[in-house]
Amino acid sequence: MGSARAARAAKLDAPETHLVSARLATPSDAASIARIYNEGIQDRVATFETRLRSPEDVAAWFDGTHPIVVAERAGSVVGFADTSAYRPGRECYAGVAEFNVYVDRAHRGRGVGREVMAALVRESEAAGLWKLLSRVFTDNAASRGLLRSMGFSEVGVYRCHARLDGAWRDVVIVERLLGDAADNSPGSA
Ligand SMILES: CC(C)(COP(=O)(O)OP(=O)(O)OC[C@H]1O[C@@H](n2cnc3c(N)ncnc32)[C@H](O)[C@@H]1OP(=O)(O)O)[C@@H](O)C(=O)NCCC(=O)NCCS
Q: Is 0.70 surpassed by the pTM of this model?
């Protein structure tokens, strides 16, 4: 192999240059998802949760209805986004889902969040959901930036929504309409 070609091949093999791809997750991804979620819990930037989750906890998220997606780079799971029921037991809200998105610390700021959220929107529309919503700490600039850039709107702020490590925190409610709801919303001119 010529040296230029070898250099190109080596570069393509470097983790940074591997493309990110996203796919539907399966319960066999539970350990990777738990590891990434636990980093987010420990970072204290994204959630009121403080109890670390086991792969078994995450496996229970797969309810056969709500899509969960993962992003891979070089064959490793480096991010995930999941949906879950908004108001369990309220059939009128069956098409509304809560979501979360988390990227491996070492891979943040490199397009993984955008890729995995695009896949989540795609899979949620395919599953017949009509709205994704979540709450984001007001000071989580990365998450607010990502979601704004992906068509989520900020509905309002829940003040002192809960305490994290003893301190009251405000959260922004975010939502995005999907499919028919996006096309027919009275708000969409
Ligand atoms: C928030 C998070 C999911 C974003 O994923 P990411 O892979 O880092 O983001 P991307 O590289 O795909 O960036 C996509 C867009 O998000 C925004 N963004 C990302 N990082 C940002 C930052 N630090 N500040 C402001 N905007 C940011 C930008 O609009 C960016 O688009 P651009 O690169 O064209 O400017 C990721 O940082 C993360 O896992 N953080 C910890 C957990 C968390 O906060 N989850 C959200 C819970 S609601």
A: yes
